[in-house]
Every structure is written in C-alpha cells, then in structure tokens.
Amino acid sequence: MSGHHHHVDPEAGDARVFWAVFVNLALTVAQIIGGLLSGSLALIADAIHNLSDAVSLIIAFAARKIARKPANATMTFGYGRAEIVAALVNYTTLILIGFYLIYEALVRFIYPQDIDGWMVVIIAGFALLVDAVTALLTFSLSKQSMNMRAAFLHNAADALGSIAVIIAGFAIILYDWRLIDPLVTLLIAGYILWLSVSEIGAVIHILMLGSPPNLDTHQLIRRLKSVDGVADLHHVHLWQMQEHENAIDAHLVIAPGHWNEADALKSQVKDLLAKEFAISHSTLEIECSIHACDAPLIIGHREKTESNAPAT
Fold first, then answer.
1. Is 46 helix (H, G, I), strand (E, B) or coil?
2. End position of a domain, from candidates 207, 238, 261
C-alpha cells in the first residue's frame, strides 16, 4: 500500500520529461545520419528505437497533463486513465518496432553490408550518454505510474541497445565480423519484445476493469460479511479507476433487526474498505434481508433477458 503515495511536484516532473524528449530527438537525428553514413543496421535500429523513446515521452507528457483535468459532465470519472491509454500505446508501439527490427535483421543476414566500425562506436557511445541522462530524468517518475514506466522502459531498452551496438562496432573493427550487426539487432528486438509483453498485461488488465492485482476478491468478500449486522454481500464489482485508485460497487444486505443501523453499517464498511483494502471509491447499495435481490451472483450481475425484463 505504501507504494501508492509518491509525491513529486507535477511541474518539476513535466520539466524532466520535456528535457528527456529534447535530448532523445537530438540523438535520433545524429544516429540516423550516422547509421546511413556507416551502413550499420544496428545503429539505425537503435535510432528508430530512440525515436520511439521521444514519441513515448511526448505521449507520456501529454497524458500527464490530460490526467490532471477535473471530472466533468462528459468524463464523470475524470481523465486519470489517459496515462493508462498512453502506456498501452507505448507498449504496442514497442512490440511493432521489435517485429520490424527482426525483419530487417533477417534481411541483413542474407545481404550483409559494409560497415564503418569506428563511426558506429562513436555515435553509439554518444547515444549511451544520452540514454543515461534520460534515465536519470525519468527514473523517479517511473515509480509513480505505468505511463512513465513505459516511457522509462523504452529508454532502458535503448541503453542496452547502445551497449550492444558499441560491442558490435568493436567486433567489426577488430575482426571484420559484419554479421554481428544483424545479430545485435535481433538481440535488441528480442529484449524490446520481452520487456513490452511482460508489462502490457497489467495495462490491459486495468482497461478491462480487472480487479486490483494486490487484492484477494474472495478474502475481501469474507471480511465484509464478517461485519456484525451485515447478512450478505453480492453483485460485487472490483476495479481500478486509475493505477493507484481502487473502487468497489456492491449490494450490502443488512441482517434482520439491524435495519435501523443501516446508515451506520454502510459508513463502517466504507471505512473498513479504505483502511484495510485501500479502496477510496466505494458505492454500496443497501438492501434489507427480506427484500434482497432474488438469487443474486456474488461477483458481477446477471444480464436481464426478455423473460425477466420489466414490461414496457
């Protein structure tokens, strides 16, 4: 639960993201020129990934701004999920880039090209320096949201890519081993895909209204049923409104003889949800045990059919 309370000045964070975008765009231009002049696919691959770094940071920057907008009549839950959508876009982009680099590397295995090893090493060394600066600018922000984590992982993958390109450049200088260039490109692509696939699941889980991963739904239900005066609980929906904001919607059945305590029990359950389960947004429908829902589902709700839908 403690990991949910990182307080960093939003404006200071925005400034870091801005400078990270600037240095990555400058690096991308240098790498593409160097890759074309030296003939290195690995360097161009690194440049393409670096461009995706800059784009991912721009998306992350825009999402941070949008997410701060207050709720309104059109977006009653607010704009906080803009950062989740941004993370999905960034991870999807990384996956597409990974597959593109694999294709280009396979073509280079079939048609090897001459490569200027020293130019590759110098430009990749400069790229590694920029990657380090970007990592410093975005690391603390990456602990706060999956949006910034996606942008940070773009950069982390690129830093490893730059190291691999430097190694490839020295192998070409020392041994004229040209096939190491597409081989390194394959390694970069594989790492990008591994990172992206391992992280995108959590993003999709939130967008699919999955229950918070750190909560045991059945344990939560048992705990609420144990409250004195609560007879039952059903139609339970648990989800994450945003990455660090959990929510619940449920029907709370009041036990016989406790109806006059219904409001107090509702407040007690809300306090329990906040303190024990870090659920800040709870919507509870109160039912008396005599008039409770007929054959309800504990989790979720039954869809109405033509036979049980109200007559019009």
1. helix
2. 207
